[in-house]
Design brief:
With 387 residues, this protein is of the alpha+beta class. It is built from eleven helices and ten strands. It has helices at residues 12-30, 34-40, 45-53, 72-85, 87-107, 110-121, 238-274, 286-314, 320-345, 356-364, 373-385, and strands spanning 127-130, 146-149, 155-165, 172-178, 188-194, 200-205, 216-226, 231-232, 276-277, 280-281. The longest helix is centred in the middle third of the chain and has 37 residues, at 238-274.
Length: 387
């Protein structure tokens, strides 16, 4: 449950979403099973199916394309709450919402929206976003996955993608490839690739520190044939599509980080109020009070940055810098808060009997995917220094 901190952006519609859909979903589908999801690494298929039936897989997509038609602020509220219970489920939903439905709605043709976006937004299919490669993580302009155009206008894809969330379970992949490496970013194109296409395989699954119930896969493309109708946008527009998509995706990851931090913060408050040392609750110790105060300040500061970015996006204004600020602040706050949460719990925090060790492991990835903290600083600095 979100703390009762006032946000100007919240409306009756937001409150209704949380009370009637998100909170019951978290209570029934996530809270009882999150520890098990983490321990087994099993994909939370039932939770994802239920999320789809509730409209949580295409929250910001127009209802005409199967979505819920919610604004970005509602998306942030929902994702934070979901992540506070299960970070793995949150990133599964975030990728489908932000990185797959987002570019399809913004850049897709009417046919592409009807064919691919509608089932994704309705939760009938799952998507993944395939940009990173073994040698091109933070440097997407140097992709090596090759798209060769044939005489009939179709394409053939060959190469490898790394670190792809939802890669194992996805039905549809948004794949970025180069038509000509010499052109660097001007040679990149985006393709819609059904994962059952011949030549597409999941070649490796990563064994990860955290978010263990979401798959992170290496994808292999061996003469994967793609018709011209599956080109998203135009040739040479791929990097533009990727960067535009990542701006929105960073708001989602900021919300995920907020949820992880919130869970660790609330667990810490409960622990220090119940646990006694030196004949009194830990909460009576000034050092502990300082920890709690600093957690609250970092969490609220990051939340305000996240909702500021969401409001700009909803208003149709530029938000790239604010999205980077939100992602940077929220991910670093999550890492700091979860670290201090373990410290507050002492030896108990280092065991799996308490949830803070899971939150700590889940938090780290938010500083890495969809642009590392270093990349966010570069984006922010570029926006501040370049007129």
């Amino acid at each position: 449950m979100l703390p009762n901190w006032p946000l100007a952006a919240q409306t009756e519609e937001h409150a209704l979403l949380m009370q009637s859909i998100v909170d019951p979903f978290c209570a029934s589908q996530l809270a009882p099973f999150a520890k098990e999801f983490d321990a087994t690494g099993n994909f939370p298929q039932e939770a994802v199916t239920v999320a789809g039936s509730l409209g949580l897989m295409g929250m910001m997509v127009d209802p005409t394309s199967g979505g819920a038609g919610l604004d970005t602020v509602a998306y942030c509220l929902a994702l934070e709450a979901i992540a506070s219970h299960c970070a793995s489920t949150a990133v599964i939903l975030s990728v489908n919402n932000s990185l797959v439905c987002g570019p399809l709605e913004h850049f897709g043709s009417p046919w592409q929206k009807e064919t691919f976006l509608t089932p994704l937004a309705a939760g009938k299919k799952l998507g993944c976003f395939a940009l990173s490669e073994p040698g091109a993580g933070s440097d997407p302009a140097h992709l090596r996955l090759r798209a060769t155009k044939k005489a009939d206008g179709s394409y053939v894809l060959n190469g490898t993608k790394n670190w792809i969330t939802n890669g194992k379970e996805a039905d549809i992949a948004i794949v970025f490839a180069t038509l000509d490496p010499a052109l660097k970013h001007k040679g990149i194109a985006a393709f819609i690739v059904p994962t059952k296409t011949q030549g597409f395989t999941v070649s490796k699954l990563e064994d990860k520190l955290g978010i263990t119930a979401s798959s992170t896969a290496q994808l292999f493309f061996d003469d994967v044939g793609i018709p011209s109708t599956h080109l998203l946008g135009t040739e040479g527009e791929g990097l533009k599509i990727a960067l535009h998509t990542l701006d929105g995706g960073r708001i989602g990851i900021a919300s995920q980080a907020l949820g992880i931090a919130l869970a660790a913060f609330e667990a810490s408050k409960r622990f220090v109020l119940e646990r006694e040392q030196f004949g009194a609750p830990l909460a009576k110790l000034q050092a502990i009070q300082f920890f709690i105060a600093d957690m609250a300040v970092r969490l609220q500061s990051a939340r305000l940055l996240t909702f500021a970015a969401a409001e700009l996006k909803d208003a149709g204004k530029p938000y790239s810098k604010q999205a980077a600020m939100a992602k940077l602040a929220a991910s670093e706050a999550a890492m700091w808060i979860t670290t201090k949460a373990i410290q507050v719990h002492g030896g108990y925090g280092y065991t799996k009997d308490y949830p803070v060790e899971r939150h700590f492991r889940d938090a780290k990835i938010t500083e890495i995917y969809e642009g590392t903290s270093e990349i966010q600083r570069l984006v922010i600095a570029a926006n501040e220094l370049i007129p």
